[in-house]
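Same chain as my last thread, 211 residues:
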Amino acid sequence: MQTVTLLAFAAVSFVGIATPGPTVLLAMTNGSRFGIRRAAAGMLGAVLSDFVLIGAVAIGLGALLAASEFWFSALKYVGAAYLAFLGVMMLRSKGTIDAALKQGDAAAGGTPFSIALKSFLVAVTNPKGYLFFSAFLPQFIDPTSPQAAQYAVLALVFASLDFVIMFAYAVFGSQAVRFLKTKGALWLERACGGALLALAGSLALYRRATV
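reply #2:
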């Protein structure tokens, strides 16, 4: 794979990842609630989902979702419901950020495993991710060369960028909450919850492109 191709892929991926979406919002919220160390677990969960999504596209699952209204809708509504659940939980927050800042342990709001699982599930239940990669990745694949290795390289580049950007969001969240009083910190979490609910609604209304 040529260096120019990888640079172009990285540039487009950076813009796409940096645009606020469910996983980066979770990274920022996790950073504000739990600090960078435990937020890193969520980042690893999201990175794992990158490999799952790209692997699924490489074996044709993205094409299946593009062709099947039933499976696309099933995955879409599961993903929307899970995003809505997370959004509601954040909106109903009653002091979790303040408790996390004071206690700084798992009792303050989630184990590393649960944090990682949330980010992983948010990504793998979003059919837009499969459709995006199905349309996006083939543009950077050379059909005359072995494709498995190319998909692996693209996955590593995308996952690395994803981790770096989520880390930046988590740092922002962890620093922002230090300058906020308890009520302000709660409203930060609730704002993220509202954003997740809005994303859940947009996902529920999202339709496949039809020919």
